[in-house]
């Protein structure tokens, strides 16, 4: 029997719990459901989750039940949370949202969007787990883990619509980060060649080249394949967008963009890029002193 990630769903809405459970079971995940954090604590005896999908109000940082759940899950780190939110309540990023680790999903929930969020968060969890093992090993050897020297990340925004370019640029500049704007793929490629950014945001369609093709091109090149790519698209292109994530883009945003989703997606992808840099830097330290298996790269004596 193959191993499957376990996902806990916490929502006061029975219909929503049932729908989400069916969507995730259909994607071959193991699933447990709970009405609230208190019931979720009782369900922990059936298995420790790898991801929690939770109603935003249930994830209130001031809630005693939610605090108790977080306490019970200490040691199961890094454990991401996917917050279910209503569009009309998404004016600000929730205080319980941990930068770079958690994410949001707007209602009504679309199956493909749900699965894309879950997959992306589980990938981040795996990356953070690898970094954690590396750093524990390095400290055991009295060595300092690698820390990337990036004072302010650079984000390249590729969008041919001036209004969208301005709107998204204004949003992500608050993270903070340095925003470079381009209105064509040729202009974007020149920016990437001159000074590779930590993240590229690309429109699905613009005049001189298909956005997905640009993503695929960047992923094929050794110098650019590790740069996270965030695709902008419209709702009718949803199926193409999700399929396209396997071919190039790391994530996506639906236009018109939701401010909370812009901030959470950009933060998480920048955190992932910093994580890859930490992973690579730690590996180099271990390689330099002969503490990794040359074939597998796994730390060892």
Detailed description of the structure:
- By secondary structure, this protein is an alpha/beta fold.
- The protein has 2 domains: 6-140, 3-Layer(aba) Sandwich (Rossmann fold), CATH 3.40.50.2300; 154-257, Response regulator (Rossmann fold, 3-Layer(aba) Sandwich), CATH 3.40.50.
- Helix content is 42%, strand content 18%.
- It has 9 helices and 12 strands.
- The strands form 3 sheets. Strands 2-1-3-4-5 form a 5-stranded parallel beta sheet, sandwiched between helices.
- Strand 6 (154-158), helix 5 (162-172) and strand 7 form a beta-alpha-beta unit.
- The chain is globular and about 55 Å long.
Which value, in Å, is the CA radius of gyration?
Answer: 20 Å
Which class do the helix and strand fractions yield? alpha/beta
Give the number of DSSP strands. 12
Spans of at least 5 consecutive residues with low confidence:
none
Spatial strand order of the main sheet: 2-1-3-4-5
Instruction: Count every helix, treating DSSP H or I runs of 4 or more residues as helices.
Output: 9
The CATH first-level class of the largest domain comes to Alpha Beta
Q: Determine the CATH topology of the largest domain.
A: Rossmann fold
CATH architecture identity of the largest domain: 3-Layer(aba) Sandwich
What number of domains? 2
Mean pLDDT comes to: 84
The rounded distance between the terminal residues' Cα atoms is 32 Å
Largest sheet: 5 strands, parallel
Helical content class: 40-55%
Shape: globular
Which band does the percent of strand residues land in? 15-25%
What's the name of the CATH homologous superfamily of the largest domain?
Response regulator
Helix/strand order, N-terminal first:
EHEHEHEEHEHEHEEEHEHEH
């Amino acid at each position: 029997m193959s191993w499957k990630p376990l996902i806990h769903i916490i929502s006061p809405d029975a219909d929503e719990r049932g729908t989400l459970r069916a969507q995730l079971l259909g994607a071959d995940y193991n699933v447990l459901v709970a009405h609230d954090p208190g019931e979720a604590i009782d369900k922990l005896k059936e298995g420790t989750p790898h991801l929690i999908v939770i109603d935003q109000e249930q994830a209130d940082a001031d809630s005693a039940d939610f605090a108790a759940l977080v306490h019970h899950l200490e040691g199961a780190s890094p454990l991401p949370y996917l917050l279910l939110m209503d569009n009309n309540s998404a004016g600000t990023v929730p205080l319980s949202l941990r930068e770079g680790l958690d994410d949001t999903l707007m209602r009504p929930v679309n199956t493909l969007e749900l699965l894309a969020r879950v997959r992306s968060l589980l990938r981040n969890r795996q990356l953070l787990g690898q970094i954690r093992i590396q750093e524990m090993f390095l400290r055991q050897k009295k060595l300092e883990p690698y820390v990337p020297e990036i004072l302010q990340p650079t984000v390249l925004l590729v969008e041919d619509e001036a209004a969208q370019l301005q709107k998204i640029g204004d949003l992500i500049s608050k993270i903070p980060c340095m925003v470079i704007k381009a209105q064509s793929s040729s202009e974007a490629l020149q920016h990437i060649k001159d000074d590779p950014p930590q993240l590229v945001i690309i429109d699905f369609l613009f005049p001189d080249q298909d956005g997905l093709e640009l993503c695929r091109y960047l992923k094929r090149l050794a110098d650019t394949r590790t740069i996270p790519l965030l695709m902008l698209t419209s709702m009718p292109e949803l199926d193409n967008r999700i399929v396209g994530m396997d071919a190039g883009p790391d994530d996506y945003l639906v236009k018109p963009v939701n401010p909370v989703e812009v901030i959470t997606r950009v933060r998480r992808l920048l955190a992932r890029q910093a994580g890859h840099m930490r992973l690579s830097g730690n590996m180099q330290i271990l390689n330099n002193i002969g503490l990794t298996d040359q074939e597998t790269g796994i730390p060892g004596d």
